[in-house]
Specification:
Helix content is 42%, strand content 13%. By secondary structure, it is α/β, with parallel strands linked by helices.
Length: 442
């Protein structure tokens, strides 16, 4: 495939050289003439392990560099935009991205055939199908999705290991405004058959990049907060502490999808509960404060968790301005499937919030009914003895705990003439399972 890449920084150059090494015909574009001349002489302007060798193997065969953006776009099938997006403390600077988009659009105005423009730069969600799309359409006089394709393909390259990361990717995020754009991206990465692929829209692709980096930043700060507490308490080796955490099977074992077990905890929902996580995090906060540390990260963890049940109210509020008299079934009272433990279950703050707003409530759990009655008395809620009775004559269903028995809920609700709302607190169902489907994080 013929590929043009705008920008020859770490991302653009590594992307270009690696794709060229896989047999694609790649043209790298940069405004710096000296940089272009160096590349055409197989001299890398940056140091990356393995990059020099690949340059020598590809320059003059499958890789060339130029300052002529129009010609590079005209002679290619797909263009990657890989220019810088620096952050000035208030927002990212999109001037280079938009400038490149306008230049590409001017070429597309006169170019026949279908061409796909792919944003490779790190940009905040909404950029690709927002201002980038607008710039391309304005400059070309054409319509994205009809006349040309538009995609977003974030990079996950670590400087120093970028060549290896590209050639042996752990994932490929293929974002696009339509299937045709994503299909072409998939063709670009055909030489990487083993890599797990995520096909999605451009906004989700953009968010995956930021979420990945934010998670890493959170984990680093968490490690530092734990290390600081260990140092304050004394005689605690933080290296051994984190090693003891990391060898957990949650990090090492893979599930049926090939993902680490820890991902079962990383699904957005109505919050965590149980006898361990809330209690232990709060205890560590207090212990840290007694040692003179603020424990700000762990405090934020608890605050976010305590705010999650209110998301259910927001989702129901999309359908009813006033919940008084609305018949709502809360399914799942144990804090997770497979246990009757209701300690710190998010079901109870959800129930209390719904009661405060006047909803008529009923609840059901396959095994935790008696335990639930001890937390919230039967006078305040109707406890049902079966799933079918809980769903009878209902306006909305809130699934808090994803018991296997509840997999039949969407089908059961489809028989209701009133089209009840399903609020999925654990991403347990397909978003297309019901016309009136709501999910935290959707």
């Amino acid at each position: 495939m013929k590929i043009s890449i705008i920008g020859t920084g770490y991302v653009g150059l590594v992307t270009g050289v690696c794709l060229a090494s896989k047999g694609h015909q790649v043209t790298c574009v940069d405004i710096d003439r000296a940089r272009v001349e160096a590349l055409n002489a197989a001299r890398s302007p940056i140091f990356e392990r393995g990059l020099d060798e690949l340059l020598r193997d590809t320059v003059g065969r499958t890789l060339t560099a130029t300052t002529d953006l129009p010609e590079a776009v005209r002679s290619s099938d797909v263009t990657f935009v890989a220019v810088g997006t620096p952050f000035d403390g208030k927002s990212i600077d999109l001037s280079a991205v938009l400038g490149a988009s306008r230049e590409i659009g001017e070429v597309l105005q006169e170019k026949d055939g279908y061409h796909v423009v792919v944003v490779k730069s790190t940009v905040v969600p909404g950029t690709t199908d927002g201002c980038v799309r607008a710039a391309l359409e304005s400059a070309s006089g054409k319509k994205a999705g009809r006349d040309f394709g538009l995609g977003m393909n974030p990079e996950f390259l670590s400087e120093g290991e970028a060549v290896h990361d590209f050639l042996f990717p752990d994932r490929l995020v293929l974002g696009g405004i339509d299937d045709r754009s994503i299909d072409l991206l998939d063709t670009v990465y055909r030489p990487f058959p083993e890599a797990l692929r995520i096909r999605t829209n451009t906004r989700t692709a953009e968010m995956i990049k930021y979420a990945s980096n934010a998670l890493l930043a959170n984990l680093i700060s968490f490690s530092n907060e734990i290390a600081n507490l260990g140092a304050a308490l004394g005689d605690i080796d933080s290296v051994d502490v984190m090693r003891g955490v990391h060898i957990s099977q949650y990090f090492t074992a893979r599930n049926d999808e090939g993902l680490p077990g820890i991902t079962s905890f990383l699904r957005a929902g109505c919050g965590f509960g149980g006898s361990c996580l809330p209690k232990d995090v709060k205890a560590l906060i207090v212990h840290g404060e007694q040692a003179g540390l603020d424990m700000s990260l762990l405090k934020a963890v608890i605050r976010v968790n305590e705010e999650q049940p209110a998301r259910v109210l927001q989702l129901l509020g999309k359908h009813w301005a006033d919940l008084r008299g609305v018949r709502i079934a809360v399914l799942g009272l144990a804090f997770k499937p497979g246990t009757s433990d209701v300690r710190e279950s998010p079901a109870f703050p959800i129930i209390r919030l719904l009661r405060e707003h006047g909803a008529e409530l009923r609840a059901y759990d396959p095994v935790a009914m008696n335990e639930a009655r001890a937390v919230i008395p039967e006078s305040d809620i109707r406890y049902c003895e079966s799933l079918l009775s809980a769903l009878e004559d209902i306006d909305a269903v809130v699934v808090v705990t994803p018991w296997e028995e509840f997999q039949g809920v969407p089908a059961a609700l489809q028989t209701h003439a009133s089209a009840p709302v399903l609020v999925d607190c654990r991403a347990a169902f397909e978003r297309t399972s019901l016309p009136r489907y709501e999910r935290i994080g959707l």
